[in-house]
Protein 1
Amino acid sequence: MPVRPNFLERLVLHRLNRGPAPLLDLFGAAGFESLALALDIGVLEALADADEPLSASALAARVNAHPDGLAMLCDFLVTEGYLSTADDGYGLTAMTESWLLARSETNMGPWFTFWDELVFPFWERELETAVREGEPSQTIYEWFDEEPARWETAQDGFRATASLLVDDVVEAMTVPPGATRLVDIGGGHGLYAFELCRRHPNLSAIVFDVPGAVETLRNDVPPDVVDSIDTRAGDYRTDDLGDEYDVALLFNVIHAHDPAENRALFERVADALAPGGRLVVLDQWEGSGRTPVSRAGLRFVALTYLTTLGATVYSTDEVRSWLRAAGFSGVEQRGVGPLPGVAILEATK
Ligand SMILES: C[S@@+](CC[C@H](N)C(=O)[O-])C[C@H]1O[C@@H](n2cnc3c(N)ncnc32)[C@H](O)[C@@H]1O
């Protein structure tokens, strides 16, 4: 909720509890809806393309909207910190320039679109079921399978968050000397495999994912690594993962499964690795939220994983015990990226 209450408002709403602070969540929800529409109809990109602030009617002509309706949307987005006003027109704030434009290296727009178009509609449908019964009536991945376009939107969203982390992650993780074969299990958009192959020219990678995700990926492999990347479609819980890999990645995968499934998955990965092979696990970790925003973020993802996947965030201690049970040793942990609570755990077979 980017709207920032001033001192008096914080005093009244938070310290003294003299006004209904849930209003801020209501404004946040409306703010997110409004932002999603602005992304969808191209308001932010149209303002980025213009070299000067645009009036509501000039902007409306570019995005095919009603000038009065668009002015109301933009006025709200100004109060939420996404737009600025200058010279009787609208412009972009530094926050929007950094995080919401296609030309920015840290563009999170596709991630917010993923939430707006897929995750929140799924929440609406499944939150109560998940809370009452401990799991949704189907997983969000099963729901994506019903409509292939959902996979594209989802992978665009996963790719946006991965692009914030990828440089840190590939620097933090260990690729054993002489490694030639890597498998990115649940690798989806393939961004991590691409970057690892770029930095380690002797490495080739298989991105293993469900058929819907792999089909999307096949058209997206960048030319500079196309000879190093292969794909394999299947279910990593039951299908052959291949063997003799030097490195296996499980990035943002274990939060989709219960402990018994994860233990079984670690054993399957151990079987697929060559002796001395390295397993790298990337996720958000229980207990890692130490500030108000990171605590809220962790509880937010835990509730999301419950609602969308019937699973949760795990503690590193629990995951270390699964690694040891599957025959891994020398477990190391490193924090990565600007997002709170994200770290890799890596271990050797
Ligand atoms: C949250 S995404 C993570 C993508 C990527 N590893 C990352 O960290 O950005 C989880 C990925 O696991 C894949 N996945 C989920 N269940 C799977 C299964 N049973 N077999 C293979 N892939 C699966 C999904 O299709 C998706 O691409």
Protein 2
Amino acid sequence: MQPWPRLLATFVAVVLPVAVQAADGFDIVSLGALGGIQDGNLSAHLIRPHDDDRAVTCDAGTLVNGLRVAEERGSLGDVRLTPGSAESRVGHVLTQRIKGYLITHAHLDHVAGLVVASPDDSKKPIYGLASVNAALVDNYFNWQAWPNFTDRGKDPQLKKYTMVDLAPGVATPLRDTKMRVTAFPLSHGGVESTAFLIESDNDAVLCFGDTGPDAVEKGARLGDVWLAVAERVKQRRLKAILIEVSYTSDRPDAQLFGHLTPKWLMASLHDLDRAAGGGALAGLPVIVTHIKYSLTREQPQKKIQDELSAANDLGVRFILPSQGSRWHFR
Ligand SMILES: [Zn+2]
Ligand SMILES: [Zn+2]
């Protein structure tokens, strides 16, 4: 064979299939954007590979209401229903598309949607660190707060949810999806919380539960997460970070209760930038979750946005989500 036809044949045989199989990032829908106190809009994000409709949620503070708002905003528009079925798009996504829940910690604002939707939900796993799963079963699925829909704890166990304990730092396949997850423990004012690294092919997103800054929590857990993902950030394989900011920067450290402010988030992102060799965060989408709804006439979003913009010397792309927003990060 002449060199050019041979090159072409090699391209078709080797390069094309790789290109076709190449990952195309993640789709994320915000089902609950805030960290309290507004019931109906609490921490929950629907995450799936762009090229596969099987999803999980990172936290589940709000589920059905988040799906309703997402549908009203057209963010579930491409979901095709089973022909002849009476199910709604909200019902279809809840029971058919969501293949499991990743729970960062058992605080009510991260699990309320899951608990109240459970009677009409489908069978699926709940993934969490052992301490988080134990708190879920002991505090909610105990036949007093709520029937026990899990496969652990008080009899009778209804076994709708299979509780899967994640070992810290170990990649675990997410059943019935093409994703895998690695859990990293976080310190949240005396409670163990979690950051989940969710991967599909070569792509990854990182979803944080509530966390305090290392300096205030007197530990290194946030720093350890950055060290674990630094190489992926360097290689631009990490497509987005979802992380909390609960208060504006004027909040005293003694009153953070295991949460971040814009000042502390920027300081921590600098740690990640250093670990990734510098200049690695330019353009990286960072979704700022868990801002608290305020009972004053002014919501804190504008001030938090201004504080982040003013301090953003890393070129990070900060996104303050609203419920029902959808993004494709690639
Ligand atoms: Zn919270
Ligand atoms: Zn919390």
